[in-house]
Amino acid sequence: xxxxxxxxxxxxxVVVKSAKPFxxxxxxxxxxxxxxxxxxxxxxxxxxxxVVEFDAAASRFSAVPLG
Length: 67
Description:
Elements: E1 11-20, E2 23-28, E3 33-37, E4 46-55, E5 60-65
Parallel strand pairs: 3-5
Antiparallel strand pairs: 1-2, 1-4, 2-3, 4-5
């Protein structure tokens, strides 16, 4: 990750890397991986999400879709 850490409440754009029945595996522009629960989108789509939790040690986050 380059620079700032994510924190709950941050709104960021992510790209869908994989879609599963329980949610979407995504990646931020900074290269941080995350899971969007309850979302549905095709692989390669860019989504706007709100960060719910960020695990700095593992460098990953969980989020919910906006809109």
